Amino acid sequence: MDWDQLDLHPRVKAAVRRAQISSISSVLVLSSPVLQTRTGLSCSDVQQLLIVAAAACRGTPPIQAVLLKTGPGPRLSLGCPVLDRLLRGGLHSGGISELSGQSGAGKTQLGLQLCLSVQYPEEYGGLGSGAVFISTEDSFPVRRLQQLISEQPCLRSDVPPSVISSLKFSDNIYIEHTADLVSLQTCVSRRVPLLLSRGLVRFLVVDSVAALFRSEFEASDWLERNKQLLTLSSCLHHLSHEFNIPVLCINQVTDVFNDSEHTLGPLRSSVSPALGLAWSNQVMVRLMMRRLQGTVAREDQSSTLRRLEVVFAPHVASGGCDAAVWREGVCGVHDGK
């Protein structure tokens, strides 16, 4: 596929050619500022270029076009009304949602919580089916999952006890361990579709999407890495849209250092989701979870405060809410209480 086949304004195509950017995939490894400098295009033109290029590489329509065509699908509740309000009902079906953050922020726990929430009937924010949890790095936290299951009556006080007791939570979570990219691709292209086609699951978690790409590729292998990344994202998008399910990819973060020529102090560090622009263009919803300095207490429990933020989403305004990790799960808090 060449530039003439893409649905772009002629002046955008002309600017790309003047910049001597020959391949569509090479656009995805360049940042927006670099593309603006090389092409002379506006910020909005560059964003449209990235959206169309990413869609062409994975062989699917742009996310925005899919949403306009199909409309919003069912939502998967996070199991907490405060967190659900932030996301206008929960995770969106029909696309990839990313949850990134530093180690210990609570990302995996929220993924486990969603694996339980999906099993509830639709009237209680679930999808009435099971979940697949693909672990690519650490061992699966079985003990924490069992604790979350035992505490479901406390977390889901909105659900009748008879409904909770009727659910066999452990039997409906299919755990997969993938030690390399080949086994990960095999899992999402063969085993997961089989479970979906049989109606056994309606939710997929990959924890984490960055671990294998970081371990198997050197910095000089960026082209092959991005090729493999696009292959994986294409498969995840296909599963999400074909079966109308939410897909959650838990992501690591990387340090970003900010230096100012007007200060003699140390470099300031912040974090951003791993895997760069090539991956960012595959994500429909980006959530960030981070630990705060304060703590919150409740009865005999205490927790470090967390912050769940919506970085971008087509159906939700950017914003965030404080949260805490209790025995029963991750819950939003009001005014730090």
Automatic annotation (TrEMBL):
Keyword field: ATP-binding, DNA damage, DNA recombination, DNA repair, DNA-binding, Nucleotide-binding, Nucleus
GO molecular function terms listed in the Swiss-Prot or TrEMBL record: ATP binding; ATP-dependent DNA damage sensor activity; four-way junction DNA binding
Entry's Gene Ontology BP terms: double-strand break repair via synthesis-dependent strand annealing; resolution of mitotic recombination intermediates; t-circle formation; telomere maintenance via recombination
Residue span, RecA family profile domain: 72-253
Entry-linked CDD domains: XRCC3 (cd19491)
Entry annotated with the keyword Iron: no
InterPro entries referenced in this protein's UniProt entry, alphabetically: DNA_recomb/repair_RecA-like (IPR016467), HHH_XRCC3_RAD51B (IPR058766), P-loop_NTPase (IPR027417), Rad51_C (IPR013632), RecA_ATP-bd (IPR020588), XRCC3-like_C (IPR047348)
Pfam families from the UniProt entry: HHH_XRCC3_RpoA (PF26169), Rad51 (PF08423)
GO-annotated cellular components: Rad51C-XRCC3 complex; replication fork
Gene3D superfamilies: P-loop containing nucleotide triphosphate hydrolases (3.40.50.300)
Keyword hit for Acyltransferase: no
Annotated compartments: Nucleus
Family per record: Belongs to the RecA family. RAD51 subfamily.
Name of this chain's protein: RecA family profile 1 domain-containing protein
Gene name for this UniProt entry: xrcc3
